[in-house]
Amino acid sequence: MSNLVFLSVLFLLLQRPLSSLSANSEGNALHALRSRLSDPNNVLQSWDPTLVNSCTWFHVTCDSNNHVIRLDLGNSNLSGTLGPELAQLPHLQYLELYRNNISGKIPKELGNLKNLISMDLYDNQLEGKIPKSFGKLKSLKYLRLNNNKLTGSIPRELTHLKNLKIFDVSNNDLCGTIPVDGNFESFPMESFENNKFSGPELKGLVPYDFGC
After folding, report:
1. 128, 130, 125, 131: which is closest to 103 by C-alpha?
2. What is the pLDDT of residues 185-199, one digit of tens each?
3. Which of 68, 74, 87, 162 is deepest in the core (most CB within 10 A)?
4. Residues 105, 83 contacting (CB under 8 angstroms)
């Protein structure tokens, strides 16, 4: 009899939709993010890990399959750091974390978010280099990293992002030269101001990271 019960339970578990399992994984990723952040205004109060469906949490938007597609946490007085667990949100399209006090490095794992359309991390305290992995974000249209403390050069991998319409890294501590390939030829100079750039890239004359 016990074997029959076990097989029945096993059958029910196997029948669980994959979207439910995915939702659990995404909920775990969001809770890991919450644990990294200080939230004096209780913006993340509804992020209860005991609730299986994270789509009921405030500032989280899901699609019809309960996949997280949007995080809206801009201007929320959050501080702390970002971690690699954000890459466990594979359906994410909009990552809005602007105007907070988030510090530390930008996780290179964000480059695995292949469905990402917009990444707004501007007006924070982020430091370190812009990850080269961002060159894999083929769906990305808006990348705003201005008003942080980023260093190093602009990864040339970003010049292969054919859908990129808005790119802003102004008011950082970046160095080297400004790319001229791909969509970068159309971005206004205001997107690069108040850094330590030595000017537009002069191909064949100086290395692109000249001055770093």
Report:
1. 125
2. 999 999 999 999 998
3. 68
4. no
